[in-house]
Amino acid sequence: MIRKYEITNIAHPQYPWLHRIRALRDVREDVHVGDLGGFVQSEENLSQDGQSWVADNAVAAEEAYIHGDAILWDYSCARGCASISGPSRIGGNAIVEDYAIIAAGYVHGDVHISGNAKLFANAVTGGIPTVMEKASVYGELGGEIEVHETAVILPGVMIDNPTSDVIHIGPDNIAIERKFKRESSLLTPLPGFQPKQRSAMKKHHRGEER
After folding, report:
1. CA-CA distance, 67 to 142, in Å (whole number)?
2. Residue ranges of region Disordered (predicted)?
3. Angle at Cα 123 formed by Cα 117 and Cα 125, nearest 5°?
């Protein structure tokens, strides 16, 4: 296996036991050989396989593990025993901690994903949740869901959206954004559908032989 990155001697200015990584090969479209990345505590934090990456000033520390195609950027942080994989994007000042699992999701802002939280793709639509601004998630979210402002998803709460509509969850309300094609009240025929022609009915006039 060709190693994806190495850990340099460039220490984090606040946490000197963390060090920057450097790409040993082209990892993804925007990460090329020689590019510096974010900070890790050890190689146990970032897989040497796949396209996963820790970029900018992001941190993966303690027993957190970044793998698959996941990326941390900006000043985001994965710590504790958090696991981040799949098509996940973690940015801003987001913190993923404790035993949280992000298998698919977009997280950005001053967000906390904590406890036994889970973010995942819906099995029907493939849609993934978005958590932004100052929201916190302790429960489980799947599918097209957007959690924003200061909304909190409490422990034990599980919302898995199997539709293409977007569920917006704020601190005081929940709203549904219906997709454009679903707004119409008209029905759509199947491809190649041809309506049956009605046969002409014989008209019988009074006095005609039946």
Report:
1. 19
2. 187-210
3. 110
pLDDT digits (tens, 9 = 90+) for 25-36: 999 999 999 999
Read off the pLDDT of residues 136-174 as tens digits, 9 standing for 90 and up: 999 999 999 999 999 999 999 999 999 999 999 999 999
pTM (two decimals):
0.86
Neighbours of 164 (CB within 10 A): 16
CB contact set of 51 (below 8 Å; sequence gap of 6+): 27, 28, 68, 69, 71
pLDDT tens per residue, range 36-89: 999 999 999 999 999 999 999 999 999 999 999 999 999 999 999 999 999 999
DSSP structural state of residue 188? -
**Distance separating alpha carbons of residues 87 and 85, to the nearest angstrom:** 7
Q: Which two tokens stand for residue 94?
A: 């987001």
**Domain range summary for the chain, segments of one domain joined by +:** 5-183
